[in-house]
Design brief:
The chain is an alpha+beta fold. It has 4 helices and 6 strands. The chain is rod-shaped, with a radius of gyration of 41 Å.
């Protein structure tokens, strides 16, 4: 046998050995993948998808049309954010205002009680009336209005019935007495009127 043939045979044997080693390594890698928990496989697949999506976005951004689309999308997102934050700000302001006014309403109730009490001291009475007028003007400036109750039909959206009376002279569900005034801030009821209802 010539040296060339021997060399060729050795090369073929080495090539076969290499392919067998490669096959063995591939088999080991497949076994490892099979042994990997499902979560790790999902993570790996998820990362691959994210990388593909990022690559697509980068390609789009590189083109003039893609850059324009990205800019318009960003502009729309910012506009939505601005509107949403302004709406939240307005809502928060209205809630705080309503909460603050509600805390002052017992002062109004006490002024009403003071005016309903008879007194011989006219200067005292006039002073309480002036305080009451100023308090009502301040409420008006804040956008607070009284709920119309006396003589109106009972409406659970605005009134809280605490007493019931049968009176043939009055209409059905007519409010005959107001124990505590109700108030609204714009369209929102901040305190229900406490009333007596007939029939």
């Amino acid at each position: 046998m010539s040296d060339e043939k021997k060399t060729e045979e050795v090369r073929e044997e080495a090539a076969e050995a290499e392919t067998e080693e490669e096959k063995a390594e591939e088999k080991k890698a497949e076994e490892k993948k099979a042994e990997e928990p499902k979560e790790e496989k999902k993570e790996r697949k998820g990362k691959a998808k994210e990388e593909k999506a990022e690559a697509k976005e980068e390609k789009k951004a590189e083109s003039p049309q893609g850059a324009s689309d990205a800019y318009l999308r960003l502009l729309a997102e910012y506009d939505n954010y601005r509107k949403r934050s302004q709406k939240e700000k307005d809502s928060l302001y209205a809630d705080i205002k309503a909460d603050t006014v509600t805390k002052f309403l017992p002062v109004y109730d006490n002024l009403v009680r003071a005016l309903n009490q008879g007194t011989e001291d006219e200067a005292y009475r006039k002073g309480v009336e002036m305080i009451m007028n100023q308090f009502c003007q301040t409420l008006e400036k804040l956008g607070v209005t009284k709920t119309e109750s006396l003589g109106q039909k009972f409406d659970p959206k605005f009134h809280n019935a605490v007493m019931h009376v049968d009176d043939e002279e009055k209409g059905e569900n007519e409010i005959v007495e107001v124990f505590q005034e109700g108030f609204m801030l714009g369209e929102k009821v901040i305190r229900f009127a406490m009333v007596k209802v007939a029939n």
